[in-house]
Amino acid sequence: MGKGIVFMLLLLTIYYSLFTISAEAKVYIDITAPSSKKLPIAIYDLQGPLGREISEIIREDLIFTGLFMYIDKSSYIEDQQKAFNPQNWTPLGIEAVVKGSVSGGERTLKVTVNLYDTMEAKPVLSKQYQSDKDLLRQLAHNISNDIYQSLTGAPGVFRTRIAFVGDAEGDKGIYIMDWDGQRAKKTSVKSKLVLAPHWSPDGSQLIYSSERGRQWGLYLLDFLKMTEKMVFVSKGTNMAGDFFPQGDKVAFSSSKEGTPDIFTLSLKDRSFKKLTSTYGIEVSPAVSPDGSSIVFVSDRGGSPQIYHMRSDGSDVRRVTFEGSYNTSPSWSPKGDRIVFSCRRGKNQICTVKPDGSELSQLTDQGNNEDPSFSPDGRYITFSSDRDKIKGIYIMRTNGEAQKRVSPKGLRATGPRWSPN
Amino acid sequence: MKKFVAEAVKSNRVLSVLTLTVIALSFMLVAGCQQRAATRPEGAAVTPSAKEQPQPAQQKEPEKITEQKAGDVTSEEVASISAEGKEGMFEDVLFDFDKYDVKESYKAEMQSVASWMSKNSSATLSIEGHCDDRGTNEYNLALGDRRAKSVKDLLISLGVPSSRIQTISYGEEKPLCTDQSEECWAKNRRAHFVILMKAGK
User: Fold this and answer.
1) Which positions in chain B touch A235 (Cβ < 8 Å)?
2) Which string of DSSP letters, residue by residue, matches B37-76?
């Protein structure tokens, strides 16, 4: 089988100098408002080599958020080389302008970016970046993050990644790609069957289940040590679960004592605790962001439904009542919503409040599974077979802007958005 | 960049580790190296109007972002237990959608499996639980587990010692056919028998 696939270490080091100007943190877009007006923004092609490529990435990033209205460059009257003059912009209704330049040698890029507020007639961000040419995408995403943060007051997620299970001709493996689907790479984890990767809270580890030698075990991939460790194997089916917020404990499902039940396992001393015991199926535990509760799937009521309990297994109550097949729950980062796969003829993506209220269906095409939130809670990734072959998709939490991001032709399932 | 860092994780308590393939890689977190104090952007092709010149008061230490991605994984590989599996001796037990109860119609077949097992006392039986792909992957893995367990329980009730029956779920990961039709789904919702001739231990 060869030596395994080389999953190159990508280590990005962008040095950048920061010149902040913002006097006080003005919020241009209130992202907490349900439907605030889109902010009209002009984004020049940065001058110099690769400037256009960088600007294109920045535009795609910002447009996907749904918070900006990108005004096409054909309508800019200002020469980018000339000084910023708000009078060139306010008549067009443009509220923010991004200008900048790129210089660089053979291998490195130096980028200067200025973001102007046309209303207040002043720069709100002026910053220099330096990076390796190979890291152009990361560099651009970084600029997007800074622009986003300057205008919304919240951190962007443009440098996050998505882990998923890819299936290249029957060989399933764990892949990682940028959130926008670029730079997808297979990790060198060797397994024919692997399921359900979940990130540790600090983003340095993935836990997943893998079948080896006719047994399903929990395995931990540590990106800092670059090791894979077996965490738990026993008779029966051990299904990868979810980290507690401190990262030292996981919840998972195991049938080691007969039927699939929910357990917690300490990664420190390997002690475990059984939280449920029914004759049926209990699977897919998802730990709340504060660690106090767990939602999971149980068929104790006759069909698979989402249930909620405290992390010690007490106070079990049912969350979903609509439909006869609700599975794969995952929490929003704030803990105010649960996203899951709801069967409505086909599998769709739904969200609901933890108390069972405000059910909302977000998809209606094909079968959609394995949803999880982005770390800022504004987007959801999931798998879908709407374009025949299963792939990884992303959308906003209101269901807008659904698009496939995983590589064409690669069968892909089980996506998880990285926490950072 | 890549180094072979031999010796990984010795398999803990589980199965015998037949192969331990180790690929390793050095992962370096380039940390440290703080850059000197920032210099102002030179040339200032894009100059804010003079009175709005950036105030150095807010100048921060040059920030540095490191993104740790991934490298080669020191991977512990447990080779499949190569117990030769003999398949096709017994028919698959088929299930209804999202169900794991063994239908009455399989009673006779269960009897014949049980009597074969009692005649071949060195054989171990592995029951594989499978699902169609309409459910979700994780739930299907649990459902396949439950299906295999249902068949196992039935065989135990017919006198087969529990120690001679293994179960494994493959969920929807190993479909027999991939068409999106009721006929194909029905085939995939199965418990499949594999006879492991060399009794494990």
Assistant:
1) 166
2) SPPPPSS-SS---GGGPPPGGG--PPEEEEEE-----B--
Which pTM value belongs to this model? 0.84
A29 Cβ contact list (under 8 Å, min separation 6): A36, A39, A67, A68, A151, A152
Distance from CA of A39 to the nearest CA of B (A): 22
> Are A251 and A263 spatial neighbours (Cβ–Cβ below 8 Å)?
yes
Cβ(A209)–Cβ(A203) under 8 Å? no
B120 close to B160: Cβ distance less than 8 angstroms: no
Residues within 8 A of B (CB atoms), A 115-144 only: 116, 121-123, 126, 128, 138, 142
Range list of H helices, chain B: 107-119, 137-157, 182-188
Q: What is the pLDDT along chain A (420 residues), one digit of tens a residue?
A: 344 444 433 333 333 333 333 445 677 777 776 667 899 999 999 999 899 999 999 999 999 999 999 999 898 999 998 999 999 999 999 999 999 999 987 888 899 999 999 999 999 999 999 898 889 999 999 999 999 999 999 999 999 999 999 998 767 899 999 999 999 999 988 778 999 999 999 999 999 999 988 899 999 999 988 899 999 999 889 997 899 999 999 999 999 999 999 999 999 999 999 999 998 999 999 999 999 999 999 999 999 999 999 999 999 999 999 999 999 999 999 999 999 999 999 999 999 999 999 999 999 999 999 999 999 999 999 999 999 899 999 999 999 999 999 999 999 999 999 999
Nearest CA-CA distance, residue B187 and chain A, Å: 19
Residue B76 has its nearest CB partner, among A20, A230, A414, at: A230
Q: Do B48 and A126 touch (CB under 8 A)?
A: yes
Angle at A11 between CA A1 and CA B75, to 5 degrees: 30
Q: Does A187 touch chain B (CB under 8 A)?
A: yes
Nearest to A20 among B60, B80, B142 (CB): B60
Which of A18, A121, A123 has its CB closest to that of B60?
A: A18
Angle at Cα A133 formed by Cα A128 and Cα A137, nearest 5°? Answer: 80
Sort A45 into a burial class: Cβ within 10 Å, 0-12 / 13-18 / 19+: middle
